[in-house]
């Protein structure tokens, strides 16, 4: 393949989505990825309604629906109180053709995107290629790899994760903070639905909150992942120990048979937004542009939304459109990253971990009242399903 028109750093959900949308627009695109295959890190697995809408025309949504688990209802619980509020997304049937959350692991979305990308001769993914630097001039961008190769294109999209080399190469600040505690993900085949938990559930507790959700896994009946906060001082080996993780689950949901744990994962959690999503011929998307805690399942979705808009704007400029289209991408995505993605995920964590008894009781009462009032429930679901944020971004000039 000759020099592409666009280079994409990173073959995660954002990078592959951008590549597919560019290819569908007739743009020659090359993706550079340091891993040798889609990375199966067990984190993101929730796909919200706007994401399914945006991917529908490409055929990706149909494949996702075939592999995923539909979750029309999600719960908010108190560890001692039980179910506090239950929210049914069917109330949004007039606002979206997909009034539910879809549970499907990130790596499966990546493999679906790759299958669709293979249909385009003017698109390619180079695996095992590590981006080391990026430099731009008036005519284009040159990417240097750790292997010593050079790649040239008119534009570069950095979708290379929270430690983005592309972002750093352009000296773009990544402002925000890191939580002191790491998050532990425990995966079990035990069916939590049989214990009354919705496919997506959040459990508030001033000492040890958690979030539970079901994923398809490799075969039915699927797996359940439970996310816990951890003691910042606890040794990593102790936290990752599966016997200890099983005890942690049993403390949350007692079971005389105990729990089988098939996987544990521990990771640091950040809340950061890049100072700019566009610098000249370089754009940022996904975790390269923003990172957040996973409560609400919004990060991956937001990155896909970035990618679709970035691809649309780059294709328009390459077709002769005004360069300001790229500035508008920056304004739209950065604004909602701060006002919606960051604000909502920070608030979600605060609600789950609230230690002040009066504040916690007030928040639980507020959630009960919201779920019981159809108008309030609808407004809440428009926000938590990311529909409101998408509409807000589109309204930014």
From TrEMBL:
Keywords: Monooxygenase, Oxidoreductase. It comes from the Bacteria. This is FAD-dependent monooxygenase. Signal peptide: none annotated. Pfam families: FAD_binding_3. Residues 5-342 form the FAD-binding domain. It comes from Falsiroseomonas oleicola. The keyword Oxidoreductase applies. PANTHER family: 3-(3-HYDROXY-PHENYL)PROPIONATE/3-HYDROXYCINNAMIC ACID HYDROXYLASE, FAD-BINDING MONOOXYGENASE. GO terms for molecular function: monooxygenase activity. The keyword Oxidoreductase applies. InterPro entries: FAD-bd, PheA/TfdB_FAD_monoxygenase.
